TrEMBL record:
Organism: Niabella pedocola
Motif (GXSXG): 37-41
Residue interval(s) of motif DGA/G: 186-188
Pfam families: Patatin
Name of the protein described by the UniProt record: Patatin-like phospholipase family protein
Length: 347
């Protein structure tokens, strides 16, 4: 059964995902055919794909906000700049970890990593991938990664929250690429969690880590300045995109599983395979992808309450991120405890 790991956006809240991933890969010995990362998830996905868990945990438990982001003059940024912060520190971390050697190791492993970005010029969701033969996206455009530098820029673009961090020209000065002037930002602008991407890649069991809270209690704070209002607006936007992504994907999966249940019931009642082919046959490839598909399992791993890290996850506090790693491990343990016997047969 093809397994996919999907990690949503959330900035420093990605530490929660690190805790989940670490237990999935060490306690349950899971490996994934497909790994989809959005924003902070794009930073995590390649390391998760290569099982470099110590590097991953160090990244999410040792850096501070000042290590990654540098605030710019607010007035100058609004009138003359393209972001409220520079991200030189984050860029340095990306280059330090995702070296040419790392990229070559990733390719040699056969890991199919998908990194989501949003193109400002075309407004498309553009997915950069190491998959040598990716499926054509029905609601996004796929770009095969052609070099280590393009890979690093795609990671950086996916993690670049618009307005707060500068856009990235992924293809600038790179031979064999298109639209070198196009600017790319956080994939979460279009899709918070790439469940649909994993489905179109053929995954049958999806382990989805969402960094938004399952239960979002009202915030009693008063928002009295421009930056605070902007940050909270981003948080509202993220919640909305997350809810929509999850609802649409669940409906899609429910339909696939329902069709499989109907087919099984009809066959048990004596309907022949030839008759089933007539009933469910269609020349429309969109219908074929739904009707002739094996059942899909969807696992949602999500914090019950809002995580630390501030709106948008732009506050990186090592102590709080260490706590979030533990919360991720605990959330997975609680999820597994609720499963029926046999449902953790993930081998």
């Amino acid at each position: 059964m093809k397994k996919a790991l999907i990690i949503s956006g959330g900035g420093s809240k990605g530490a929660f995902a690190v805790g989940v991933v670490k237990d999935l890969e060490t306690t349950y010995r899971l490996t994934f055919d497909t790994v989809v990362g959005t924003s902070t998830g794009a930073l995590i996905a390649p390391l998760a794909a290569l099982n470099q868990l110590d590097v991953l945990e160090t990244l999410y438990t040792s850096v501070t906000t000042d290590d990654l982001l540098e605030a710019q003059n607010l007035g100058a940024s609004i009138w003359n700049g393209n972001s409220l912060y520079t991200a030189n520190g984050l860029g340095s971390k990306v280059r330090q970890i995702y070296t040419d050697a790392f990229y070559n190791q990733l390719l040699a492993s056969g890991a199919k990593v998908y990194l989501t970005t949003t193109c400002l010029q075309s407004q498309e969701l553009v997915v950069y991938t190491t998959d040598p033969d990716p499926a054509a996206g029905t609601y996004y455009r796929t770009e095969k990664i052609k070099s280590a530098e393009q890979f690093r820029r795609a990671v950086m673009a996916s993690a670049s929250q618009p307005v707060f961090m500068p856009p990235v020209r992924i293809n600038k000065d790179l031979p064999g690429t298109n639209n070198p002037a196009f600017q790319y930002v956080d994939g979460g602008t279009r899709e918070y969690a790439g469940i649909g991407i994993a489905l179109e890649a053929g995954a049958q069991e999806l382990f989805t880590i969402l960094l938004s809270a399952r239960n979002n209690a009202p915030d009693q704070s008063s928002y009295n300045d421009l930056l605070a209002i902007l940050l909270q607006t981003v948080a509202v936007f993220i919640t909305d995109v997350a809810d929509n992504d999850l609802f649409a994907s669940r409906q899609y999966i429910h339909f696939i599983n329902y069709i499989n249940q109907v087919k099984a019931a009809m066959k048990a009642d004596g309907i022949t395979d030839a008759a089933l082919d007539r009933y469910f046959g269609s020349t429309n490839p969109d219908y074929q992808n739904l009707i002739n598909r094996a059942p899909v399992k969807l696992h949602i791993l999500q914090p019950d309450a809002a995580l630390d890290g501030g709106p948008g996850g732009l506050v990186f506090d090592p102590a709080k991120m260490q706590q979030m790693v533990q919360l991720g491990k605990t959330a997975l343990q609680h999820y597994v405890a609720r499963l029926r016997p046999g449902e953790t047969d993930w081998a």
